[in-house]
Write a structure and sequence with these properties.
Elements: H1 23-40, H2 46-67, H3 73-98, H4 112-115, E1 126-130, E2 137-138, E3 141-143, E4 148-155, E5 163-171, E6 179-187, E7 195-204, E8 211-214, E9 220-222, E10 228-231, E11 241-246, E12 254-263
Amino acid sequence: MTSPTKEPQGKPARTKPAPDIPSRLTVLIGVLTFAGLVFTIADAPSWATAAAIGAAVSACVLHRSVWRTRPSARGLAIVLAVTLVAGLVAHFTLETKRQGSPRPEFSIERTVSSLGSGQFGAGDIVRASAGDSSGNYSDPLSARLGSTLTVAIRLSNVGPDPVVGTRVVAGVPGAPASSLSVELRARGRNTHPSWVDDTATIELAEGAEACLTQVPGSSRLYDQHFGLIRGLPDGVNENEVPIGSVGVGVTDNRFFGFELNLEETEPDGECG
């Protein structure tokens, strides 16, 4: 009895190994990914930039060691995790450190042509009152030594556009006299003509001489009915005090006022 012949068994088919990704291609992908993300979020917070760097680095590493020819779900999950962790760590380590330091303020300057043109009404726009701002204003004003006066300028914009960047400066005489003229000037970034100005004259009773001194904290901005809008910085006699914008029309009229004391002269006849 003949034994069956054994058929030769074929060699198992070899699985072709996945092609190895060249290191240079891995580096190139990582660099391009990193550069693209950084340029895309150039204006983003630092934590977002850190997250982008984490995503780029992890994608580079995973492409070399895990993905090979195509991304895998596990690789994508790792990239997402690395991105989230990098963003959170950078947020808490970088952003929180900046909370204690003041952030720089940026202002957008517009050209005068884009602001239009406004014009302050001129004429008898500066007057004085004996006492606080609720008094009766006149020019000239009779006053007595030792009294407190309020000098104010009316800011009336006749248009056609709102005046922006309004500033006021005063000229207060520094020498004693029996007749004292206080000048107030106003301008805006888009006013034509640039300045308007006027003076209010203080006449002392019985020809006495006095000195004018500004009352600290008395610079204020008022509405068209002399209702207080807000307080303003001191120093109108030395620097321009910012007022803000002034709209067109009577309802947008504004008054800038500040108080002055009529004080006696020094023993040498000068102002202190």
